[in-house]
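Backbone description:
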Amino acid sequence: MTRDGCSLGRQTAFKIREQVERGRRLDRALGSCIQGVEARERAFAHELSYGVTRLQGRLDHLLSPHVHRGVDTLDPNVREVLRLAAYQLLYMHSVPDYAAVSEAVAQVRALAGKGAAGLVNAVLRRLAAAGADTAEFPDLDSDPVGFFTTWGSHPRWLVDRWLKRWGTQKVFDLIEANNTRPLACLTPLHARAEEVLETLKMAGLDGDPVGYGTECVRLRRSSSPAAALVALPEAVIQDPASHLVTWYANISPGMEVADLCAAPGGKALTIATGVRSTLAADCSESRMRMVQENAKRTGVKVNCVVADAHNPPIKSTDVILLDVPCTGTGTLARHPDIRWRLSPDSVSKITRVQDRLLDSAAPLVRVGGLLIYSTCTLEPEENHSLVEGFLLRNPGFELEPSDTVDGEFLDESGYLCVHPDKDGRDGSFAARLRRMH
């Protein structure tokens, strides 16, 4: 262990990033790699692996001038160690430069030999001297695509897509939000925000009210989400954008509700506190166990079943919530690996799945009932366009907007449209569809 005490944390971060580069989801790689790792090392590995994933494009751009032929030509293991060390040098100010460099050199020597170790030593020393000056990046005004792909650390195809829809300033704000490390948020199932804050304070934890008409509380960086749930068992970790979907749904008491894509269960548990019965279904057995565990911890009654939403486990119900699989471009701060896992054809592929799910669920909604369609993506093909196509195919349904959320989150048609911001809120979309006949 080095004098900064985080050698195991670096090794763990490398293992996480290695799995992510092979295509595994970042949160799952983290969960498997930190098993049995001491808390301080675990926190170090978490920050380092997520930070590198978030700023990968920026780090590669900063490293490339110091690497003959560029970072892309390097052995993958060498490139990964350089990224991890670069993030420590430039963004983890608690790490001494010598520790970041010496650990990287030792790690590469073991992975790729003495020659690679010498290269890494030279590159990192030059990087430490140069820093992360924004002058090293393309100019935002004259080359926004270049700026957003390097400093902004987003793939070019996604930058191009967003710039066609929005102006440079909107895309800048969105990318800044995506590159900001988010805070965890707590949704109490029965208490008010002021009561939650008082309970947290008594447990030695700190938070702030989120607002937006919700009782959500944003935990401060020093407060552990796990400790907060111990202090407040009748609460769930849930982003405000996700919680706003359940407010927008505005489901009347006495209704039977089926959440057909329920895991990890935040929406189902929130809805279940105010309706007659709630069925939570998902095709993943392990994720449905999470729903069951959360229901047991919070004391909320939810009927859980493992089932595929393409073949729903019900004959009919008053309300169906369909929180469909999506590209997740509204959650790139919380899930930074998504930006690198998506490809230009991801949107068209997922819309075919979303269409099938809607068509499977629609006949099961009773006349007079509601179909709530929601996503955590910003892409119109998965949101407005998809719902409008569904309504053309299904004239028995009509969009029935809800006035239960603040008007700033409703577009001109009445859809819920929440965009990410620098306070740490995700993006979400929802359509409230009433079956008329």
Notes: The chain is about 45% helix and 15% strand. The two ends are 68 Å apart (CA to CA). The chain has four domains: 7-136, 144-178, 185-237, 240-435. The first strand starts at residue 185 and ends at 188.
